[in-house]
Amino acid sequence: MRSLLWIALLLVAAQPVRSEPIQTLAQAYAAAWQRQPVAQAVGERENALRARRSAADALTPQPPSIELGGRSDRLNSDRGVMEQQVGLVLPLWLPGERSASQALAEAEMSALDGRMAALRLQLAGEVRDAWWGWQLAGNEQALVAARVAAARRLLDDVARRVAAGDLSRADRHQAAGALAAAQAQQAEAEVVLEAARFRLQTLTGQLPITAGPVAEPLAGGMPGTELANASADASVLESANAHPLLRELQTRGDVSRRSLELTRAQSRNNPEIAVATRRERSLAGEAMEQSWGLALRIPFSSGARNEARLAEANADLIESRLQFERQGERLGSERTAAQAQLLAARKLLAAAELRVQLAGENRGFFAKSFRLGETDLPTRLRIELEAFEAERQASRARIHLAQRISAQRQALGLLPE
């Protein structure tokens, strides 16, 4: 019995752990970021930059070295001539090189943070696109399923009335054709939904919950406070240049500027100072004499090589500045377009909701008249189709409004919350 219990426990432990399905846009984004290779490697990149910062804080630009040497006449005259030399070579910083190296290391740390923020925003855009595509597909599938159920109920009603002699067989065929058309739409909607779910699952690595019709404009993981704070966020970002894409270019420009300053300081190879001691004797039997030496080596400057490095650093700085200006112009246009699209989405939702209200009232009127025999089946089918299209347009308008809010936050450089 105990053996069976242990076997059961091992089987349970061997089962793969199932992660909870994602339910909000923020959860989808967090899961997608954890799957990014750059997110896994950012720790090692930070370690490399910290090591580079420590190297810039060192007393010498390169590690010291030891020189060992000796001289003897043992292989020729063998008169006992001997010389032994030990020296320590210390590289020296050039004027301004150490401070420039430290500033460059700090700029590279900031550039890494800016690059991570830009990559996060880029991934947020992909996740948002996949998320709202999945919401639209799920909403369409749910609406078509409701239409299939309504068409099936109508077909049953028509079949009973045909059996009672109130309607003709042609009416039953029309109702059956409407059901078949709805079932065909349902099959197409399921294919689109599976494709959208696969795309989102590829990004997040998790299975999302089943999407359904959206009843509120901010459903699907969008907090209601985000829209209220959108204008305030826009003013803050515009005044502080806090957009992640602008911050990335700004930090890259800072790295280029610091690299230019370091290149100017490194006009030649590093000088070296050497401290050495020498023990020697002229003939065998004489006492060993010890002496000390101090040497300074100053390399000549290489004009052509230094000019090439300066030109490359200047080119990087000019390119980063122009990219910063162009990116600012593009982001300003995106914010303006996102605001205009958001206003249009609100107007579209208001019109769609009014159409749903009118179509619902018409559906009730004609359903009653159809039961009383005052309306024919083609008119009833047309009214049902109009009501379904009105509900579809309103539901899509709700998701479209939430999508436009999400797009506005993307244009502002804000991550899903």
Describe this structure in words.
By secondary structure, this protein is α+β, with helices and mostly antiparallel strands. The chain has a single domain (29-411), classed as Outer membrane efflux proteins (OEP) (Up-down Bundle). It has helices spanning 2-14, 25-34, 37-56, 97-164, 169-204, 225-228, 230-240, 244-265, 303-371, 377-411; strands spanning 65-72, 82-91, 272-281, 289-297. The chain is rod-shaped, with a radius of gyration of 38 Å.
What structural class should be given to the helix and strand makeup? Answer: alpha+beta
What is the helix fraction of residues, given as a range? 55-70%
Q: Sheet bearing the most strands, described?
A: 4 strands, antiparallel
Distance between the termini: 51 Å
Detail the poorly predicted runs: 4-18, 212-240
Average the pLDDT over all residues and give the rounded result.
Answer: 82
**Spatial arrangement of strands, main beta sheet:** 1-2-3-4
CATH level-two architecture? Up-down Bundle
Question: What would the principal axes of the Cα set say about the shape?
Answer: rod-shaped
CATH topology: Outer membrane efflux proteins (OEP)
**What is the level 1 CATH name?**
Mainly Alpha
Task: Write a brief caption for the model.
By secondary structure, the protein is α+β, with helices and mostly antiparallel strands. The chain has 10 helices and 4 strands; from the N terminus they run H-H-H-E-E-H-H-H-H-H-E-E-H-H.
List keywords for this structure.
417 residues, alpha+beta, Outer membrane efflux proteins (OEP), 4-stranded antiparallel β-sheet
